[in-house]
Amino acid sequence: MRVVIIVLLLIVLGFIGWKAVERFKIIDDAEPDAVAHDADAGDKDGDAAKEPALPSFDIVYVTRSGYATIAGRAKPGATINLYANGEDLAETVAEADGSWALATDTPLASGPVELSLSMTTKDGLTIRSDETVLIYVPEREGDRPLVLRTTPGGATQVLQDPRETPEGLGPLSLDVIDYDDSGAVIFSGRAEPNRMVQLFINRRMLGQTPSSEAGRWTLAPEGQIAPGVYQLLVIQLDENGRPIYAIELPFERASPHQIQLRDGKVVVQPGNSLWRIARRAYGRGAQYTIIYQANADQIRDPDLIYPGQIFEVPDSDVPDSDAPDSDGEPDE
Known about the structure:
- This protein is mainly β.
- Helix content is 15%, strand content 40%.
- The protein has one helix spanning 2-50; strands at residues 56-62, 68-73, 79-84, 87-93, 99-103, 111-120, 126-128, 132-137, 146-150, 157-160, 173-180, 185-190, 196-201, 204-210, 216-219, 228-237, 243-253, 266-269, 274-281, 285-292, 299-300.
- The strands form 4 sheets. Strands 3, 4, 6, 7, 8, 9 and 10 form a 7-stranded antiparallel beta sheet that branches. Strands 15-12-11-20-19-18 form a 6-stranded antiparallel beta sheet, with no helix packed on it.
């Protein structure tokens, strides 16, 4: 009887051992499939990595005489074509690291100039950049040109300001407002790095956002802002959440009929305290940009500002579209 039990036990253990070997054998057999799957994923990543990078503008500098020096990045060895108002302006080839640079042989014409960019890779694929550079060359030689870089649906960046920024104004600023015919608005400016920035419109809170490591902030509130004249208040908070810097300035969201904009044209209205720019964006209708000049008149005493006490915080993020609280035209 004992012998029979031992034999049965050996048979059971053998069966379990065989099943264990079979189980591990199945897993071992599956490894090549897993490796092949990983290899396929690697190929997909490789294919994605092989896709040409869009060409970009990194540096655009325009002298007072209208000569431009332009640099950017593209796919190594690609042919770079630069266009001014849709016409060929210059051509160069990207270096082995993808960098490219060129300088114009003749000065840009006075007035608004729209620069666009494309690259043609070695295999013949042509890709246009999403970025556009807007330049305003003053008619009077000696004034510094304005240079902006824009992307569809993104905040406009000032690459070259025609005006000197006064000293002693503090780190907080509202530099640019972008909006379109639908009323979608993007606010952008500068602050101390890693600080919370709050934005109020007609003393109603529009939103808040942290500044970046580089001291840049961008706020794109949900909803739309109707045409009208508004007062904007921008506040930077310290690490304890108390106001430390504050500026106040006007904002006029113009109606489409207020600006005579023809297809393919850029309208630039220079001013002493702000510039207005209107342009046609391909596939996106009319786009508008306001550029502010920092000045001492914008500064407010942060010790007198306590959000939540003197400001009304509404349920929605945008003010009532039918009745702006302020009137009058912004000073220029």
